[in-house]
UniProtKB/TrEMBL annotation:
Taxonomic classification: Bacteria, Bacillati, Actinomycetota, Actinomycetes, Propionibacteriales
This protein's name: Condensation domain-containing protein
Domain of life: Bacteria
Length: 341
C-alpha cells in the first residue's frame, strides 16, 4: 500500500496503487439524453463538486467493452460512456461511493433515483490504525484468508478486469448474497478462513449536496462456519473496519506508513478478503429500465460481487482481475452463486 493523491491532486488517498480504484454503474435508460446534453450535465456536476473537468463521453457499441475501457485508470473523478441506451458511469472510489453513483445518474437526467440501503450509523470501529495493521499482517502471515486457484487458461500478463452479470427475479438481502457466495466458494474449493468484506454506507441520505465517498467496510472471517442466520447476526454486530493504512499527518504517521507499505508489499497476495460484497439495495428509478453495479477489485483475490435490486429483480455481478480469471471461469462462479440464492 502507498500514499497517492486524489485525482485532482488535493487530499491524499491511501490505497493500493496497483489498481485503478474505479467503481462502475451501468444504467439502461430508454430515453437517454443526447451525447451533448450528457457531456454538459456532467461538466456542470463536476464544477459544482469541485472535480476535474471530465473528458468527453465515450461512445461504444458494446456495453461490456465500454465497461472494461472505463474501468482503467482515469485522471477525472467521474467519466461516462454510452453504448446505445446503456449509460456507464465510472468513478474513482476516493470521490464517489456506490450510492454516489446513483446520484450521478440522477444528475445526468435519469432521475429521480433513490435506494433503500441503510447506513451503519455511529457503529464503532474495531481498532486503531496501528493495531489494525499489526492484526492484518499477522493474519496474512499465519492464517491468510481463503483464496481461489487461478484459472488454468488465464494469461497471467493480461491487464484490466473481467466482469460478468446475471439477473435473478426477486429481492435479496446482503446476508443472502454473503451466504450464497460463501457456499459457492467452498463448493468450488473446500477452504478454511473464508473472509468476506462487506461494503456499506455511513449515511445513505446525506443532507449536504456534496457527493463523496461515505462508504464503510465490515469484515466477517471464517464465514464457512456460519449459516444464514449466523451471517445475519454477524452483519448486525460487526464493527467497522479501520483502513489498514495510516492517513495523513499525526505523530509517527510516516514511520507507520513505511512499515505498513513494506509489510503489505511482502504479503500482498495473502492480504484482503476472499470476496468483497456490496449491495446498493432496492433502487427506485422510474426512468431506468435496468441497473448493474461493479465494485472495485481490491484485496488479495481481487474478487468483488455487486448487487442492485430494481423492478422486482436483482442484478448480481462478479468482477475480477483478467490476470487471474477469464470470462468462462468467472461466469461459472457466478452461476454457482445465483443457484444458491
Amino acid at each position: 500500500m502507498s500514499e497517492r493523491p486524489l485525482p485532482d491532486g488535493s487530499p491524499r488517498w491511501v490505497a493500493d496503487p496497483g489498481i485503478p480504484w474505479r467503481i462502475l454503474l451501468t444504467a439502461t435508460v430508454p430515453a437517454l439524453a443526447p451525447d451533448g446534453a450528457l457531456d454538459a450535465s456532467l461538466e456542470a456536476l463536476a464544477r459544482d463538486q469541485g472535480w476535474v473537468t471530465p473528458p468527453p463521453l465515450v461512445v461504444a457499441g458494446d456495453p461490456a467493452g465500454l465497461r472494461r475501457r472505463l474501468a482503467t485508470a482515469q485522471p477525472a473523478q467521474v467519466v461516462i460512456g454510452r453504448a446505445g441506451g446503456d449509460l456507464v458511469v465510472s468513478a474513482h472510489h476516493s470521490a464517489v461511493d456506490g450510492l454516489g453513483l446513483l446520484r450521478v445518474v440522477e444528475a445526468l437526467g435519469a432521475g429521480p433515483v433513490t435506494s433503500s440501503a441503510r447506513g451503519v450509523g455511529d457503529r464503532a470501529p474495531d481498532a486503531g490504525t496501528a493495531r489494525t495493521i499489526a492484526r492484518r499482517l499477522r493474519e496474512a502471515a499465519l492464517a491468510p484468508p481463503a483464496g481461489l486457484r487461478l484459472e488454468p487458461a488465464v494469461d497471467s500478463h493480461a491487464g484490466g478486469d473481467v466482469m460478468v452479470e446475471q439477473t435473478r427475479p426477486g429481492s435479496f438481502r446482503t446476508a443472502d448474497l454473503v451466504h450464497a457466495a460463501t457456499r459457492a466458494v467452498v463448493a468450488r474449493e473446500p477452504a478454511r478462513h473464508v473472509a468476506i468484506a462487506i461494503g456499506a454506507t455511513r449515511d445513505p441520505l446525506p443532507d449536504d449536496p456534496v457527493i463523496r465517498d461515505r462508504s464503510a467496510l465490515l469484515r466477517l472471517r471464517d464465514v464457512e462456519r456460519l449459516d444464514r442466520a449466523g451471517i445475519e447476526q454477524a452483519l448486525r454486530t460487526a464493527p467497522l473496519q479501520t483502513p489498514p493504512t495510516p492517513g495523513a499527518g499525526g505523530p509517527g504517521a510516516a514511520l507507520l506508513g513505511r512499515a505498513a507499505t513494506t509489510g503489505m508489499r511482502l504479503l500482498s497476495s495473502r492480504l484482503g478478503s476472499t470476496l468483497l460484497v456490496s449491495h446498493l439495495g432496492e433502487v427506485s428509478a422510474p426512468r431506468v429500465r435496468g441497473l448493474a453495479f461493479h465494485p472495485v477489485t481490491a484485496g488479495g483475490t481481487g474478487l468483488s460481487l455487486g448487487a442492485v435490486g430494481h423492478g422486482g429483480r436483482t442484478v448480481v455481478t462478479l468482477r475480477a482481475r483478467a490476470a487471474q480469471w477469464n470470462d468462462d471461469g468467472l461466469e461459472q462462479l457466478l452461476e454457482a452463486v445465483i443457484s444458491l440464492l
